[in-house]
Specification:
Shape of chain A: globular
Shape of chain B: globular
Radius of gyration of chain B: 20 Å
Largest sheet of chain A: none
Radius of gyration of chain A: 24 Å
Largest interface: A-B, 46 and 50 residues
Strand order of the largest sheet of chain B: 8-1-10-9
Number of strands of chain A: 0
Number of helices of chain A: 19
Oligomer: heterodimer
Number of strands of chain B: 10
Order of helices and strands of chain B: HHEHHEEHEEHEEHHEHEE
């Protein structure tokens, strides 16, 4: 253990080693979260302005592309796909964080997810909305995008179900629908709390959205069941959606794309970039909304460790891909791999390797995990690495391909860069609106967590014994049951 | 509703056959091509003829340099092996090492075309003429077909190229086929409009199509007659004879030739895309 680590260790107070302060008042939880939804400060407006500005540039670029064609995106006969598709894959990857944190950890009863899953789910929904833009704007004839849907056409013309792009359309639509449902349904008890505290247009909105939530037993039972069902549905969807995205590549015959390990590789990469993005947003929310009581260091620690594990899985699958290309000895694929590592793309390739596989080792250090500033940059660079990974999948294959006559290098044009930048603006815009309109920390689940942390499991058992036998057990510390939290 | 579902199941045998045999095979004709590279001088007349016949957009020098050209037929130029420079042959002006080799490259009309299954809207498909066709009206420009084409012979309208024909140039457009708008993928159709016209003429005259009725624009223009076009299903056509003489068979990724002197080969045969353009190797005298 280094000197810095031991120093950090020594300075840990009891609050810093516990997932959440067990003695936190429930009224304070409500008040803190509700406060975060009011009175946007200057920093909020600055962030909003930047997001809207970026998005406006994107709108301008899209109008330009719509009017004059795709030439200024600097695509060419060899590189028909570039940033649009790699950024699409990047955003789809981001969307896996919410599912991981909410659904998977919900099923395995990891209760430390409770204070932080709401914004991760919002991230899922918004990054899907962002990702969904790209397959549309990358079309040459955007105005006909709905032709990929099997709508009832007089001419009996249906999409081509053999095409992975059609599978994409179905997978993303299904994933987006269930993610929105998951986010919304999980929020209903909190919306009821908001309803009870809101005035004006917010009152109307939350009344409408909370669907008459009173917090009675029947409602809680139905709610739990529905939530669990959607969580179960969402996990296979999340795995399949990124597998299908990877099939956009692996179903083709191109060297460097035609790889059977792509589906697990993409899913691992998706969870990885999602986790890194969770860390980034975690730090931002904690800092700007003063969520220190909910977004604590021990929870961040767990997220960091999870990120490290997934990073190692991703690294392993990455190496498996290289190894299978190498030992498969398919000459064109090997050429693409060598060109990635030594050719003109090598800075990006090695950037991906360093940010994606080496940088996560920093997460092993407790000093990094406890240092907000360092961790923020680490998480941003992890995502830069993952973005580079997507670009390194799409572009070098098209630069090389099979036909030597078509070998060439490309650099994306201003339209493409504007769209990529604008996608961050669009995501930022949605997220900034979300944190002011909806509670970004799940109030009822934090209360649940506090309740369960305060009462040991034995007390629960005693209470149950008491219920069944009629013999009084030890007093449950005067903490009321979580069922009564709704609308409180 | 029944008709919509019916459409799926109606094509079912075709789909399954496509899986088993690699492509659509119920052809009325199977148009194919032979290009004799010994005869090719790399003069680019075929490419020019293609521009004129098929209303190809002339994109100009800048966009050509940006690899956004629309040439359905391009002459690829390859310089000879560099190690030849080390021999004394380099001093002789007549040897190949001083010059270049040419390869006219256009859509190879693969029987098992990689572009076809990946199109999300089915805009590219196989006709009963054995040609790989592109339905411009249906194309939404996802460009997956171009990415999956090992030959890089599918071209995308990056711009609205209507300004390529300022007046009075627009008067010389071929009225037999459309001018493609921006956002649409296009490629060599082996002059499908000529095939259709020849078929109509034959029908009007009450006879069968015969070999030589159809000439593609590149074939017609080639000064050395390096290009031959015809129906492979017709046993007596000139093109079937060349394919037979050079012992090149369809439906395989490895040709088993008796005589190594035979010059016929197909490009990227090992990819099993079953191309229908046969190249006759250039004989080098070094």
């Amino acid at each position: 253990m280094s000197a810095q680590q031991s120093l950090a260790h020594k300075h840990l107070t009891q609050e810093q080693t516990k997932d959440i302060d067990e003695n936190i008042e429930w009224a304070k939880i409500n008040a803190d979260v509700l406060r975060s939804m009011e009175n946007p400060r200057r920093g909020y407006w600055v962030a909003m302005f930047i997001s809207v500005a970026l998005f406006s540039v994107m709108i301008y670029a899209e109008v330009h592309q719509y009017m004059f064609g795709m030439g200024d995106a600097a695509l060419n006969t060899s590189h028909m796909w570039d940033l649009y598709i790699s950024t699409f894959v990047f955003w789809i990857g981001m969307s896996h964080s919410g599912t991981l944190l909410s659904a998977i950890l919900h099923l395995v009863h990891a209760d430390w997810r409770k204070p932080i899953y709401r914004f991760a789910e919002a991230m899922t929904t918004f990054s899907l909305l962002t990702a969904g833009i790209f397959p549309v704007i990358h079309l040459g004839r955007v105005w006909n995008f709905y032709w990929v849907m099997p709508y009832m056409s007089d001419r009996g013309l249906w999409p081509n179900f053999r095409s992975p792009l059609i599978w994409d359309a179905f997978a993303i639509t299904a994933y987006l629908t269930s993610s929105v449902l998951f986010l919304y349904i999980g929020m209903i008890p909190d919306l009821a709390i908001c309803r009870d505290n809101a005035k004006g247009w917010r009152k109307k909105l939350y009344t409408w959205l909370s669907l008459g939530w009173r917090g009675d037993d029947a409602q809680w039972r139905n709610f739990r069941f529905t939530y669990l069902m959607i969580a179960c549905l969402l996990i296979p969807l999340a795995v399949s959606v990124h597998s299908i995205v990877s099939m956009d590549f692996s179903m083709s015959i191109m060297p460097g794309w035609h790889v059977t390990t792509f589906p697990p590789y993409f899913v691992a990469g998706a969870l990885y970039s999602g986790c890194a993005a969770i860390i980034t947003l975690f730090i931002l929310l904690r800092y700007f909304f003063k969520f220190e009581h909910f977004m604590t260091f021990p929870i961040l620690d767990k997220v960091c460790k999870l990120t490290f594990v997934i990073a190692m899985v991703w690294t392993y699958l990455n190496l498996v891909e290289f190894a299978s290309v190498w030992y498969g000895h398919d000459i064109p694929s090997k050429e693409v791999l060598i060109a990635k590592a030594t050719g003109p793309y090598s800075p990006f390739f090695w950037g991906m390797m360093v940010f994606g596989s080496v940088l996560p080792f920093a997460l092993l250090s407790q000093w990094v995990r406890r240092n907000m500033y360092v961790l923020f940059f680490v998480s941003v660079f992890l995502n830069v690495g993952m973005w580079l990974e997507r670009w390194m999948i799409v572009t070098p294959t098209l630069s090389m391909g099979y036909h030597p006559q078509a070998f060439n290098i490309m650099w994306p044009g201003w339209v493409e860069w504007a769209m990529v930048g604008g996608s961050f603006g669009w995501f930022g815009m949605l997220f900034l609106v979300f944190v002011k309109v909806f509670p970004s920390v799940s109030m009822y689940e934090v209360k649940e967590m506090v309740y369960h942390r305060k009462r040991t499991v034995y007390e629960d058992v005693d209470e149950m014994m008491e219920l069944h036998s009629g013999v009084p057990g030890p007093a449950p510390n005067g903490v009321p049951a979580p069922q009564s939290t709704g609308g409180a | 509703m029944p008709s919509l579902l019916g459409n799926i199941f109606k094509g079912w045998t075709d789909y399954s056959k496509g899986v088993e045999e690699g492509g659509h095979h119920e052809y009325e004709h199977m148009y194919a091509m032979v290009i004799d590279l010994d005869l090719c001088t790399g003069c680019n007349a075929c490419s020019t003829a293609c521009y004129a016949e098929n209303n190809l957009a002339v994109v100009g020098e800048d966009k050509f340099g940006a690899r956004q050209a629309m040439h359905w037929m391009r002459i690829e130029r390859y310089f000879d092996e560099p190690d030849l420079d080390k021999t004394e042959a380099t001093t002789d002006a007549d040897t190949q090492s001083r010059g270049a080799s040419f390869l006219p490259m256009m859509c190879q009309h693969c029987n098992a075309a990689p572009c076809e299954p990946v199109c999300p809207v089915g805009a590219t498909y196989h006709t009963v003429d054995g040609l790989n066709a592109q339905v411009y009206n249906r194309c939404i420009g996802s460009r997956y077909c171009a990415n999956n084409c090992p030959f890089r012979v599918r071209y995308f309208n990056f711009y609205d190229n209507a300004e390529s024909w300022p007046a009075p140039m627009d008067q010389q457009l071929n009225p037999d086929l459309s001018v493609r708008s921006k956002g649409v993928m296009e490629k060599c159709s082996m002059c499908l409009q000529r095939t259709r016209a020849a078929r109509d003429t034959a029908k009007r005259e009450g006879r069968e199509l015969k070999d030589g009725d159809i000439q593609t624009a590149c074939q017609q223009t080639c000064p050395t007659s390096a290009i031959l076009f015809g129906d492979l299903l017709d046993e007596d056509s000139a093109i079937s004879k060349v394919w037979k003489n050079h012992q090149v068979k369809l439906g395989t990724y490895k040709q088993d030739k008796e005589n190594p002197e035979l010059r016929g080969y197909r490009i990227f045969e090992e990819l099993n895309v079953d191309t229908k353009v046969l190249y006759l190797e250039r004989v080098r005298e070094v």
